[in-house]
Amino acid sequence: SLDDSSVPQDFDPKWNYSEVVGWGEVCVLYPSGKDPCSKDDRLGTRVEIFKTMYGKEYVIHDIDENNTIVGKAFLDGFAKLEEGQVVDGFIEEIPLTEVFNRKGSIPTEFQPPKFGLTVFGNSHGFDAGGSTSGYVLWVNGRGIMIDPPPYSSATLMKEGINPALIIGIILTHCHADHDAGAFVTVLAGSPVVIITTPTIYKSFITKYSALSKLSSGLIEKSHRNIYAIIGQPLHFHGAIFYFCYSLHSIPCICFRVELGGRSMVFTGDTLYNPPLLKKLEKDGILSKTRAKLLCDWSTQPCDYIFHEAGVPPIHTPISILKELDDEIKQRMYIVHTASVPEGCGLRCAPTGTAETLRLEPNTPHENFFETASSNFWFQLSLFSAIPFVTDLTYSATMDLLEVVRVKFFEKGAIVVPQARRKDVLCVIWEGTCHERPVVSSTNEDFNNDGDYEFNCLGSLNCRKRPVGSNEIDDSDSDDDIIFWSAGDWSGPVSLQPEKILCGESKRTRTHDIVAWSSFGVKAIFVEKTDLKRILQHSPLYKRFLSLSKPNENDSWGFGDLDKNQAAIHRAAIRDFNLSNLLALNSTLKKLKPVQKTHFQCLEGKLRYISPEECIGSSMENAFLLVSGTAELRENVPAPGSVAANARLVQENLKNEECSRIVGKQKCGFGAKLNGFHKLTQRLHHRAERMTKKKTPNSNNFTLRNIETLSNDLYGRRISRRKSVIDRNNNVLLSRMFLKNSITDGLIFSKGNFICNVLDMHSSVYSSEERLSDSNMLDSNMLGTFEAPQFVAGVDGCVVFEIPKESFIGFLGSYPGLFFSLLGTQAVI
User: Fold this and answer.
1) What SS3 state is found at 198?
2) I need a labelling partner for 43 at 20 to 30 A (CA). Which of 234, 308, 503, 626 fits?
3) What are the Cα distances from residue 392, in Å, to 215, 387, 389, 537, 805?
4) What pLDDT score was predicted for residue 742?
5) DSSP assignments along 270-339, one per residue
6) In the chain, what is the straight-line distance between the N-terminal and C-terminal CA atoms, in Å?
7) Quick check: 683 and 749 in contact, CB under 8 A?
8) What CA–CA distance (Å, rounded) separates 530 from 809?
9) Is residue 522 within 8 Å of residue 515, measured between CB atoms?
10) Reported confidence tier of residue 525, pLDDT bands at 50, 70, 90
11) Where are any strands of DSSP class E within 357-452?
């Protein structure tokens, strides 16, 4: 209970549930005797305690048996613990997305079948406690998602499946519980192909163009699609698909898929009711052929039938399926339903990777781990994620396929010995690998220089690091284990910018790459010498090799600055490393290796901007801050103008909000509500850290301290909370930009990215592909204000400037990145 005297009188405990659920850690308390694993108990009477991202504020929700919030409370402060006491209950593990980024891939024992199906959810869109239907159809070890739910990527990682294994999406129809995940995948820029009929695809594009205010042409250019033609077989990834329209309220497809003499049928959302279908035929609504097809489709001969049983009348009644023959029920799984009555002979499809349904082909086929390099599609698909490969000419790509070697390793076998890690590109085809320290019982294998000794065959004799070595890896501690999953690779740092995965970090001197999966590992190898020869045909690789350091002797115009500040700018220019700079940006640090390498090859240049000099109001180019600070300044409209009056109204609203929050600031929650005030403070504190006066020799900014701190649980929790704060800051900046809110006084510092992608895109692309301002900005604010200006701080700033044409071309290659930057002018 709360002491009323401790709560401000004007405190108004009103906040959105969506505000608090995104704060990260939550503790749920259930009454005695309740089972959290039970759906009824899980959504029944309980208390939810949310810990805010700032670590000392808590929101408490009292929820009744109807899953309704009946009480709210807010707490601010710390709990004093006696010796030996701990606070338990909050979820403190690192999110799977961060594990995936920091430690390589998620270790998993899951082996994708040659032909099978994994079910992640088998309920319908009206079931509050169940998971919306979502499936992965496995074909030759790669996944095709069927109507993926919006959280499909997180679900895949939670189940231990690398999202890179997903190569396609089958979209059955455009109801929200079936197509929302497909659009999320498109926005994320995942390299998947959408398979559906022309009618459904056009509906999908039209629907999400209206919802997102993105042009249909832009959405179409962001992904690949393959049309499923009714009555014609579709060959995809070695399997054969046969599509048909089901009976639903809107166009919806069902399909049959065959591989190696085995087959599965997926009915999609359909009304299967033979008596009703015959009546519709009799009334002339359905043709005889159409009615017969719908009656026979759900009971046709095959290995598995995945039949829906949603809510009638637009879905199949469970009573109809109960009357089917036992032989049909034995090969049928019910999906898209909350439950199945007991004793009816029907069963729900099992969920999770452990319950994956597998069908081994009956016809002779090549071994799952065959060592011959015959499957060119797989190899090209795996190489497409590696920098520079997609930039190769056709003849150079053929040369690459000629030099690859494919090998299979049993569990525990050394895939890449430490002595070879910098000299070979290794791409994991199937399975999972991990790093293992080299071991030896003696030190006799070291030569006099402390290096490793090799025998006459070139094999490594030593399996131990030099005695007394106290080298600290620049990415992770020796206690960390790095994993590679299917689609990951290790090799020269130019091809694998991720330090923890490349073959040139300090760990490579003392660690082998070893097969971890119980079913073994299949990997592709290319020698470094062959790669260097082939990559000479890549224009992007030539650009990468031609990158040069700035000339320290150039005059940068630092004459007006004091010596210390000028030395800081010179040191930042001298030590300029674009890869390290991207690591300081909360969004750009998440770029894929091929994107990071491409970004480094953009035709940009370093530029010094004097104090109070305007970077540019039109923001034609993109800017990445290298040193110093930049401030966002509002253009002051003429007194008495429409713009001035509108600004005055907005200022008054802002002042009213601030005064309304004064009483709430005592408990801390008001500061959370005052987003602009909080954002201003965070940016100011960050700028102070980034511009802290240092000697030129110590100006190299690295993340070593942060990474070292992140090796323990406490550091990981801090890193996670910082990630949440950065994400919320970027969301707030985007909202302020789209609503043309007052942003005067925001300070940006090293690593912040400044670019108005919306204006940049509109000036380059054609009218069919570009976005008009009226589609993206608040129509009430259009034409009212002039664009704000970015001005260099009191000590000036150094920026990496990227020309508009170069940057838009870069974004055109990566739609997911383009969508993430759209609708904002700064990313911190």
Assistant:
1) helix
2) 308
3) 31, 10, 5, 6, 22
4) 62
5) ----HHHHHHHHHTTSS-HHHHHHHHHHTT-S-SEEEEE--STTSS--HHHHHTS-HHHHHTEEEESSS-
6) 40
7) yes
8) 29
9) no
10) very high
11) 357-358, 405-409, 414-416, 424-430, 433-437
Q: At what angle do helices 757-764 and 804-813 cross, to 10 degrees?
A: 90
CA distance 609 to 793: 9
Q: Classify residue 762 by burial, with Cβ atoms within 10 Å: 0-12, 13-18, 19+.
A: middle
Structure tokens at 205: 């594009």
Find out whether the peptide bond into 113 is cis, omega within 30 degrees of 0: no
Reduce the DSSP state of residue 444 to 3 states and report it.
Answer: coil
Q: What is the CA radius of gyration of the chain?
A: 30
C-alpha span between 30 and 46 (Å, rounded): 5
Amino acid at 498: E
Q: Are 750 and 584 in contact (CB under 8 A)?
A: yes
Measured distance CA(264)–CA(256) in Å, rounded:
6
Query: Which residues are CB-neighbours of 47 under 8 A, at least 6 positions away?
Result: 28, 29, 60, 61, 62, 63
The Cα 563–Cα 559 span in angstroms is 9
User: Is residue 327 packed enough to be buried (19+ CB in 10 Å), middle (13-18) or exposed (0-12)?
Assistant: exposed
- C-alpha span between 815 and 617 (Å, rounded): 26
Cα 362-366-367 angle, rounded to 5 deg: 95
Residues 6+ apart with CB under 8 A from 349: 117, 119, 122, 306, 333, 334, 335, 357
pLDDT at 232: 94
Give me the amino acid identity at 281.
E
Q: How buried is 589 (Cβ within 10 angstroms: 0-12 exposed, 13-18 middle, 19+ buried)? A: middle
Give the integer Cα–Cα distance in Å for 577 and 699: 12
Strand 224-227 and strand 193-196: pairing?
Answer: parallel
CA 741: distance to chain centroid? Answer: 29
Residue for token pair 């939550």: 26
pLDDT, tens digit (0-9, with 9 covering 90-100), for 744-771: 778 888 989 988 887 777 665 544 444 4
Q: For the segment 492-506, what is each residue's pLDDT rounded down to a tens digit?
A: 888 888 877 888 877
Range with top average pLDDT, 466-480, 759-773, 776-790: 759-773
pTM of model > 0.85: no
**Strand (E) positions, 337-484?**
357-358, 405-409, 414-416, 424-430, 433-437, 483-484
